[in-house]
């Protein structure tokens, strides 16, 4: 069975020198997820893409959305050129010439237990972004371009799937303590917890790849 949608799997965090910090847990999770995709989702490489945000968290949106658009449009053109279309795979996409696309965002989840995976569908209209600056930047950029919520004539039939991995929380609730905590390097124990989260995340991605509903 052919996949029913495209997945753009993007991790958000911070660039060097903060690449190995708790705030970059999304990147560290993708490090563990990416090697599992070829065996878990064989022969589906044309339908999914992994991408690490190269910017600081609070300005993630513009570059991520440009890359998402570029990839999804290109893949739809390539698939159509090979005779593969939403019609041929019986998807319910409103646009019969374009595969629906899911933007999967891997990110850190402050206050969640270490390594716990939390799944949320949609933007702030569905579940709070809880002040996460990376998610806010992405959702504001998508809204500004009319991609989500989708405006008439938009290039993409877009869904959002947010996958957060728990990073715990410092004992102190003071702003400075929280900032120091999320910008501190992860320990080997924490890194192992993120890696253990990869397998359940890949199962979620497999289900999403074959999901028909928009």
Q: Main sheet?
A: 5 strands, mixed
Radius of gyration: 17 Å
The helix/strand class is alpha/beta
Q: What is the number of independent domains?
A: 1
Broad shape? globular
Tell me what the CATH architecture is. Answer: 3-Layer(aba) Sandwich
Highest CATH level, the class: Alpha Beta
Residue fraction in strands: 15-25%
Helix content: 25-40%
Distance between the termini: 18 Å
Largest sheet, order of strands side by side? 2-1-3-5-4
CATH superfamily: Peptidyl-tRNA hydrolase
In CATH terms, what is the fold-level topology? Rossmann fold
Low-confidence stretches: none
Q: What is the N-to-C order of secondary-structure elements (H for helix, E for strand)?
A: EHHEHEEHEHHH
Q: Mean pLDDT score, rounded?
A: 94
Question: How is this structure best described in words?
Answer:
40% of the residues are buried. The radius of gyration is 17 Å and the shape is globular. It contains 7 helices and 5 strands. By secondary structure, it is of the alpha/beta class. A 5-stranded mixed beta sheet has the order 2-1-3-5-4, with helices on both faces. The chain has a single domain, classed as Rossmann fold (3-Layer(aba) Sandwich).
């Amino acid at each position: 069975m052919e996949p029913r949608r495209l997945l753009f799997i993007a991790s958000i965090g911070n660039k060097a020198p903060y690449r190995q910090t708790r705030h970059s847990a999304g990147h560290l999770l993708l490090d563990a997820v990416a090697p599992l995709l070829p065996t878990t989702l064989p022969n589906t490489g044309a339908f999914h893409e992994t991408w690490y945000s190269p910017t600081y968290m609070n300005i993630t949106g513009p570059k991520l959305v440009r890359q998402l658009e570029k990839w999804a449009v290109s893949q739809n053109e390539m698939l159509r050129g090979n005779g593969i279309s939403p019609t041929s795979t019986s998807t319910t996409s409103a646009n019969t010439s374009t595969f629906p696309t899911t933007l999967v965002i891997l990110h850190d989840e402050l206050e969640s237990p270490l390594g716990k995976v939390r799944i949320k569908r949609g933007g702030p209209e569905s579940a709070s972004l809880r002040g996460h600056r990376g998610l806010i930047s992405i959702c504001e950029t998508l809204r500004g371009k009319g991609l989500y919520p989708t405006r008439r004539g938009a290039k993409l039939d877009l869904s959002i799937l947010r996958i957060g991995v728990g990073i715990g929380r410092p004992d102190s609730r003071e702003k400075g303590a929280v900032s120091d905590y999320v910008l501190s390097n992860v320990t080997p124990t924490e890194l192992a917890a993120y890696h253990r989260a990869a397998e359940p995340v890949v199962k979620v991605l497999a289900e999403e790849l074959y999901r028909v509903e928009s």
